[in-house]
Each structure stands twice: as C-alpha cells, then as structure tokens.
Amino acid sequence: MASDHGLGSLGVEGATAAAHALSLPAEAYGNDSRLEAMWAMKAYNHAEVYFNLISSVDPKFLKLTKHDDNIYSSFREAFKDLDIKVLNTDDVKSNEAKERWRPFCNKFEGTVEDFNYGTLLRLDCEKDYTEENTIFATRIQFFAIEIARNREGYNTAVYKSKSGKS
Questions:
Q1: For tag attachment on the chain, is the N or C end more exposed, with fewer CB atoms within 10 Å?
Q2: The domain that contains 102 carries what CATH number?
Q3: What number is the average pLDDT over the span 44-51?
Q4: Has this prediction a pTM greater than 0.85?
Q5: How many angstroms separate the CA atoms of 113 and 131, rounded?
C-alpha cells in the first residue's frame, strides 16, 4: 500500500491547510471536490497505517480504542451472525443493514471520537485494500468489525503472510 501521494507530498503548508480544512464543520463547504479528495486521502492514509499495523503486529494483541471491550460486546450482541471474515457489501450498505447499523453506531456518539467519519473497510479480511476489496464505512463500523476480526483471529492471516510467521 505504499504511496507517494500521502499528506507528506503536500508539504508542511499544504498538510496544515488540509488539517485545518478537515476540522471545519461540513456546512462550511458545499460539494467541494477538493474536500472530497482530502477526505479520501485521509481515509486512504488511515487504511495504509492500519494494514501496516496488522501486517507487523499480531492483531490478537492490538487495542484500537480505549472502548474496545464495549464496542466488541455491543457489536456481537447486535450482529451475532455477521460473517466478518468476508463481508458482503449489503451487510453494511443495504437499506436493511443501515437500519440495523444506525442504533449501534449512534450508541457511540460522544464516546468514540469521530465515530461517524468515513473510513475504508476491507470486505475480505485476508486481502489488502484494493478497489474490489474495499468499501466506505463509518469509523465505528470499521472499529467494530476490525476489533472483532482481531479478537476472533481472522486478521492473523494477514500478519502471518506479511511477517513470514507460520
């Protein structure tokens, strides 16, 4: 996932301007394509850091937030049978799924910082972020699914394949 197009390529002034722009309320913008590009870059950088992390550290030992226990138990209570190894887009994006996800997500408003920010999520947890294997989800959906994947051992395949462990 290495790229020369990260925030570092903007320089100090550009990265500072991007950080400031991303901190303003959504009402300050319309449908500004530059803002969408900055959000996409921020989501991509987050995905890159996360994938590098699970590639180099056994995911079973990762703690993504200080609320991991609560997120995990609430997630598994609400989504007992969700196959998190290989998600179907409809598991997150269908109208029915959105109705199921909404109360779960809203439960973490004020608890998990930026709980509803856009984040990239892998569909198949054994594969890297690619156009075919990635969807846009909220940060709390990302945390819920990735915390479960880490605790239930699904992300261990990435760690083993990238670290040479068997």
A1: C
A2: 1.10.3560.10
A3: 91
A4: no
A5: 27
